[in-house]
């Protein structure tokens, strides 16, 4: 902290004011948390199409017994293993496929069975042993109905809420519709079996309950204008939380009979709650359609909204919330209309305050370059290009000082505020790239303050207040010290002492007459009284010398040791001097856990723990062991690029760090050891190149062995440890007992064990993983493997070969030699065949990874990769290139009128026509639902328009046969020719604009994008 160690000579009045203000502050750890909660952002990691989610709207969420996350979508079902989504789609032509592409509800029953409720397709059971779905008809008339809710019945069966009422699905008999006394007719949208056996049923009729052992339901009073109950949840203390479609959220205490409204006057009471999740023992989150998330304190009922903020990369992905889930690790998943938002388990140590957010009380500047906690508990922040502002950590902005180039004497210049300091009288000093400014504590007026003898608008890099002296570090003119006031007095000018470098990055007041200064050319100790200078240079080759010459941060710890933060050399701790009077240091670098060797700021919290902001995230340092722990997104710290000198510690003992993108607050305390032990599961399994359902082996205590025959003697196993909090930090290894001598380490991005041509026998493949902290998972995954011998590997064949060999000894040597040669040729052919099979299997896998399975065109990822390379090549050589973007007209109407199978047939036909019209050098891809793209190298606009016109005409002339009859299909096409300054994004955007013009012009036409 730049102003640490200061002693203030203040008047009695000022002392009383400061004391009064300090009494109003909450300085306990709990108070520190409250100080920033109003400004902090609940940080999410978001998953959309770009991250592999097959559809943007997750309508249902569940976690199965194996640990997989299942995501029900408006366009299918996906399974997440921490690294990729595996998709399931409805296809009536394939037995066992998903029964309905709109998944409305997911439920994992007490026996581990996954149940899938469709938006219109009824109920289905997932069989993990076969990786198939089996529809379950709830009544004899039809199995196609909307499933609104599923829960266990407590005796091995299910309660299923539908548009046709409530059904019970017993474990051993047929489903039956419940017609109990007091159960109103109408759609059932929520069902909950309480911990005490009470059955709660919600729907358009409101809410009813049936106690355990009773036969009749009783009505729970809910406001008549609520439009019914849409969600139910029970917290860890037994309260029932009730979400309504119009009147927000209610809570029913265990001893109460009438639910109490939550969030009156906040806006929540006018919203429709779609989902409720118990986020922690003290907080529930209510998801609202169109209004984001609302966190509710379970005990005091205070509400806190969480919304999407387009300026904040870690905010909720979208305000239209459909679903929620708390997983086994205590992390929260939220399904929105633009994808999936994930909030890892929060240890409560870190708060992130994003800059430039849409919230009126938030930080107005994006990048925080300097921080100053005032003695009254408020905080000044200096920004890169947005001036400075005073922040109340509990309520937000207090004062904002916007730059004004037209008033250089009384307003901050339009440049960075790189340093801040508070004087004994409360004056706040601002160091900028265009001079030194002071703000009067009484009038609030700002003025440019010239340092006597110094150029008034000279750049200021650092500030430090020492008693009545203000030390000013220039960016180009060295160190200055002066006494502000009516009669300003310069006590040290930049030329009074000799420094090898005149950029003063940091100033630290030591003990006695010592003043420590960090520059781009090492560390200096200056004796203020004698003006003598001791230069401490860097020597990376000497392990006890200063490791880096660019000094940006200085700190004195609880033992009085000087810590030095450098750019490029990490951290050095001054431990004393040797017999030759050379300063000796201990180093802390990458080998001790520091995430980066560029250290921008170091701060000490009230427990003595040292924190460091680096160019690759935050580090928490044990000052005794000199070891660092990287603090990442999974800890609540998503910011990575921390600014040099932007750090401070406040009166509560918390430390504050400025970064590109905002600010991080770290409260005193230690991170609890991450003890979640994830299961290790198989995510993909192939024998002889043929996929095998992984459910046969995940969660099985004694699985049957994998059989490898002579014709299928290859094994490929992909596996994962299901710790979703930071999967990039999980570690993996595998070992095939009987083959591998030791464990084989697997890269986190390629968790794949591959074996081919194994000798006959029994093996055990052991798969091992860890959680993000390196703790072993819940146990090794063991797959038994049995390799069957070929005929020539059997004992009788080997015995026969021995007999023939003996006969050959007593027979003709030439015959024996000929036999051996034939056998060798046969074995070589067997090996060649199996190698060819493996190569073909790998080629099939590669084609699957690049091809859209429905149309046979390149998928979006492969198309964009190939197109980027082709566009770059055309730009480099100046050859013509054009892009056509095609969108099928009224495709949604085809799906709505003729059904999804007809829509798939239209897409298949479109892909076939594109393939027929494309040339050998063209590239065609399916880049969206009904959107295709055709890249035409060596083709100018005229040629592209001719080809696109033929394609448009061919589509118009085609017909697709569906169950409802024949359909005519047309398409709108936008064409753009590559310009010299185009990249793929600009070329695509122009073609897309032309496509929009074609749509607006009446569809079924081709439009050429205009020139630049």
In words, what does this structure look like?
This protein starts with 11 loop residues before the first helix and ends with a strand. The chain has 9 helices and 72 strands. The chain is 15% helix and 38% strand. It is globular. The protein has 1012 residues and is α+β, with helices and mostly antiparallel strands. The model is unreliable at 1-33 (pLDDT under 50). The strands form 18 sheets. A 5-stranded mixed sheet has the order 59-65-64-61-62, with no helix packed on it. It has a 5-stranded mixed sheet with strand order 67-68-66-71-72, with helices on both faces. Helix 6 packs across helix 7 and helix 7 packs across helix 8 (941-957).
**Mean pLDDT reading:** 90
Secondary structure category: alpha+beta
Strand order of the largest sheet: 59-65-64-61-62
Q: Helix tally?
A: 9
- Give the tally of β-strands: 72
Principal-axes shape call: globular
Low-confidence stretches: 1-33
The residue fraction in helices comes out at: 10-25%
Give the structure's gist in a few sentences.
15% of the residues lie in helices and 38% in strands.
Name the features.
1012 residues; disordered N terminus; five-stranded mixed β-sheet; alpha+beta; single chain; globular; 9 helices
């Amino acid at each position: 902290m730049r102003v640490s160690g200061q002693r203030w000579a203040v008047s009695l009045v000022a002392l009383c004011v400061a004391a009064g203000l300090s009494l109003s502050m909450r300085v306990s750890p709990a108070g520190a948390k409250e100080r920033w909660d109003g400004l902090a952002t609940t940080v999410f990691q978001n998953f959309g199409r770009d991250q592999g989610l097959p559809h943007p709207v997750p309508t249902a969420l569940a976690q199965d017994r194996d640990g997989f996350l299942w995501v029900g979508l408006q366009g299918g079902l996906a399974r997440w293993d921490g690294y990729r989504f595996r998709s399931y789609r409805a296809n009536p032509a394939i037995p066992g496929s998903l029964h309905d592409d709109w998944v409305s509800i997911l439920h994992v029953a007490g026996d581990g069975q996954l149940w899938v409720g469709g938006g219109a397709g009824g109920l289905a059971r997932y069989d993990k042993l076969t990786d198939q779905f089996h529809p379950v008809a709830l009544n004899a008339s039809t199995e196609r109905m909307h499933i609104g809710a599923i829960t266990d019945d407590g005796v091995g069966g299910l309660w299923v809420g539908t548009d046709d009422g409530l059904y019970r699905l017993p474990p051993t008999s047929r489903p039956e519709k419940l017609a109990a006394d007091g159960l109103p007719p109408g759609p059932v949208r929520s069902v909950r079996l309480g911990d005490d056996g009470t059955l709660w049923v919600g729907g358009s009729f409101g809410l009813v309950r049936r106690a355990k052992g009773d036969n009749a339901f009783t009505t729970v009073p809910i406001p008549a204008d609520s439009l019914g109950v849409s969600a139910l949840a029970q917290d860890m203390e037994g309260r029932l939380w009730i979400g309504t479609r119009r009147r927000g959220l209610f809570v029913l205490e265990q001893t109460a009979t009438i639910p109490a409204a939550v969030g009156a006057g906040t806006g929540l009471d006018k919203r429709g709650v779609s989902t409720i999740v118990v986020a922690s023992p003290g907080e529930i989150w209510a998801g609202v359609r169109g209004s984001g998330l609302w966190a509710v304190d379970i005990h005091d009922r205070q509400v806190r909204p969480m919304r999407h903020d387009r300026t904040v990369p870690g905010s909720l992905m979208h305000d239209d919330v459909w679903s929620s889930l708390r997983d086994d690790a205590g992390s929260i998943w939220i399904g929105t209309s633009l994808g999936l938002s994930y909030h890892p388990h929060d240890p409560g140590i870190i708060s992130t305050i994003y800059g430039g957010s849409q919230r009126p009380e938030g930080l107005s500047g994006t990048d925080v370059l300097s921080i100053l906690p005032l003695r009254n508990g408020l905080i000044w922040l200096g920004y890169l290009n947005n001036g400075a502002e005073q922040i109340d950590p509990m309520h937000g902005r207090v004062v904002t000082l916007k730059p004004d180039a037209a008033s250089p004497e009384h307003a901050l210049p339009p440049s960075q505020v790189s340093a801040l300091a508070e004087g004994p009288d409360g004056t706040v000093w601002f160091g900028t790239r265009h001079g030194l400014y002071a703000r009067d504590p009484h009038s609030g007026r700002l003025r440019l303050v010239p340092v006597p003898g110094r150029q008034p608008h000279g750049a200021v890099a650092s500030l430090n207040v020492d008693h009545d002296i203000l030390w000013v570090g220039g960016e180009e003119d060295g160190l200055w010290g002066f006494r502000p006031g009516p009669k300003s007095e310069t006590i040290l000018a930049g030329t009074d002492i000799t420094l090898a470098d005149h950029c003063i990055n940091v100033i630290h007041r030591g003990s006695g007459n010592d003043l420590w200064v960090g520059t781009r050319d090492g560390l200096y100790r200056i004796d203020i009284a004698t003006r003598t200078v001791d230069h401490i240079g860097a020597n990376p080759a000497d392990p006890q010398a200063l490791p880096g010459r660019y000094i940006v941060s200085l700190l004195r710890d609880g033992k009085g040791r000087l810590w030095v933060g450098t750019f490029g050399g990490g951290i050095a701790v001054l431990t004393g001097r040797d017999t030759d009077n050379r300063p000796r240091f201990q180093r802390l670098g990458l080998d001790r856990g520091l995430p980066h060797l560029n250290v921008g700021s170091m701060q000490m919290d009230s427990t003595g723990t040292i924190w460091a902001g680096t160019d690759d995230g935050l580090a928490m340092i044990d000052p005794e062991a000199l070891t660092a722990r990287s603090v990442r997104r999974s800890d609540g710290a998503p910011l990575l690029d921390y600014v040099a000198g932007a750090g401070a510690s406040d009166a509560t003992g918390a430390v504050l760090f400025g970064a590109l993108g905002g600010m991080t607050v770290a409260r005193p305390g230690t991170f609890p050891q991450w003890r979640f032990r994830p299961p290790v599961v198989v995510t993909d399994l192939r024998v002889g190149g043929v996929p095998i359902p992984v459910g046969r082996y995940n969660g099985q205590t004694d699985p049957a062995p994998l059989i490898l025959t002579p014709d299928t003697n290859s094994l490929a196993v992909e596996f994962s440890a299901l710790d979703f909090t930071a999967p990039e930090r999980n570690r993996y290894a595998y070992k095939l007992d009987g083959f591998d001598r030791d464990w084989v380490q697997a890269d986190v991005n390629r968790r794949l064990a591959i074996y081919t041509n194994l000798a006959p026998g029994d093996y055990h493949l052991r798969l091992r993983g860890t959680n993000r902290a390196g703790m072993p998972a819940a146990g090794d995954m063991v797959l038994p493997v049995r390799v069957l011998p070929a005929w020539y590997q059997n004992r009788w064949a080997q015995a026969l070969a021995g007999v023939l060999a003996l006969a050959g000894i007593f027979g003709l040597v030439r015959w024996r030699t000929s036999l051996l040669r034939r056998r060798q040729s046969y074995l070589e052919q067997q090996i060649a065949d199996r190698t060819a099979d493996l190569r073909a299997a790998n080629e099939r896998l590669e084609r699957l990874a690049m091809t859209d399975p429905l149309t046979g065109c390149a998928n979006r990822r492969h198309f964009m990769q190939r197109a980027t390379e082709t566009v770059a090549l055309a730009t480099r050589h100046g050859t013509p290139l054009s892009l056509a973007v095609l969108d099928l007209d009224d495709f949604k109407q085809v799906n709505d009128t003729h059904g999804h199978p007809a829509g798939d047939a239209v897409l298949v036909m479109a892909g076939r026509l594109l393939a027929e019209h494309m040339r050998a050098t063209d590239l065609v891809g399916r880049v969206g639902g009904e959107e295709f793209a055709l890249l035409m190298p060596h083709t100018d606009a005229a040629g592209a328009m001719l080809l696109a016109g033929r394609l448009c005409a061919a589509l118009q002339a085609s017909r697709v046969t569906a169950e409802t009859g024949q359909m005519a299909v047309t398409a709108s096409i936008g064409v753009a020719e590559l310009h010299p300054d185009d990249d793929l994004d600009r070329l695509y955007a122009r073609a897309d604009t032309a496509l929009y013009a074609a749509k607006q012009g009446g569809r079924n036409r081709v439009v050429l994008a205009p020139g630049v």
